[in-house]
Amino acid sequence: MPLYTFYCNSCAKEVKLFLSMKELRKTKICPTCSGSNLNGPLQNGTTAVDNQSQASCSLSKRS
Ligand SMILES: [Zn+2]
């Protein structure tokens, strides 16, 4: 499945989710705060909302 990057408005972090095409159309849930207020998917390699690359680094340790 492709990996999509979203920006969570609830916890103000970028989150990465593996989603199928079907799941992409459904409501996405933030793995960090369980909120559904996600922006995206963001373009790969560009950060539309903010430039903190640290956020995605620290998040990648979660599973
Ligand atoms: Zn969140």
Please give the structural blueprint.
Layout: E1 3-8, E2 13-18, H1 21-25, E3 38-42, H2 53-59
Assign the CATH topology: Rubrerythrin, domain 2
Percent helix range: 10-25%
CATH class: Mainly Beta
Backbone structural class: alpha+beta
- Continuous helix count: 2
Main-sheet strand order equals 2-1-3
| Domain unit count | 1
Order of helices and strands: EEHEH
What general outline do the C-alpha atoms trace?
Answer: globular
Strand content: 25-35%
Q: Which regions contain 5 or more consecutive residues with pLDDT less than 50? A: none
Radius of gyration: 11 Å
What is the typical, i.e. mean, pLDDT? 81
Number of strands: 3
Distance linking N and C termini: 16 Å
CATH architecture name = Single Sheet
Biggest beta sheet summary: 3 strands, antiparallel
